[in-house]
Structure prediction request, 279 residues.
Amino acid sequence: MKDSYELYRHAVDDVWKGWWVCWPLSGRVEVGQVLENVDGKVRTAGTLGERGIPFVPRPGTPHNDYTYDTQGSVSLQFKAAGVAMDGLAALAVADFGARVTFEKGNSALIVYRGLTETGVADVRALAAALVQRGWDDWDDTLLAVTDVVAADSGIVLTAAESGASVELRLQAGAGQAQLGLADLAGRTSVAWRRRLGLKWLGTDTAPFFRVVRLRKTWFGKVEKDYGPRQPGRGAAPVPVPPVLLEEAYDDPASVLETVTSDEQPPPVVLSDEQLPGAP
Prediction:
């Protein structure tokens, strides 16, 4: 059986291929955050602002709600308030709710609603600013978060084995007669579950993000053309050669590269009971 992270990572790649994912799911990533990737482990390393690297965020861009059902192997039955439904273990007649059943193992149901993407507005200026720092103390282990997709709410369920099921108690809005898949990511609680793997329900989360770094080839070119970078060039500061800043402005892609999800190190393996959201 796939572990929860592997199953989730594979699932979201259908739409968010190349994007990094927050894990644990309760984690929070912000535009302008700095990460350090050393020996296959990623840790937080401050922010661009704390490192003297200015940037301006662009306004948020809405996205459609995101839903994923592993190869159609998840069945979903909604229950209206005041209506009885056979086979329920915990939902009362008065409840709005839903029963989710996983026909196969290694299945996932993922729903995010209220998605908004924010990012760095001026990539050229960021490239030049990172070149400025790269001349001194920014190295190729450092990553800058340039784009973040936040969600108002989300739910992630995985099956520990085939036949897993869960009953969800939903809070419908005033006068709401019908419920849809996106409502699972609203104000939801688990009333009962069987053979379930990961269970996570959250609000104000940031499930997907992108990071960039200065190209490793850029560092090699600089050392070849100008010798070792600061601070190993003597007592007096040496200004950044203007041609390097011009290159960053003219062609940011020659200086910066987006680090794809293929390079996101897997997390430390935890049991589902140890993950946030587990009882």
Q: What stands out?
A: The longest helix spans residues 123-134. The helical segments are 4-12, 123-134, 216-226, 242-250. Confidence is low (pLDDT under 50) at residues 232-236, 269-279.
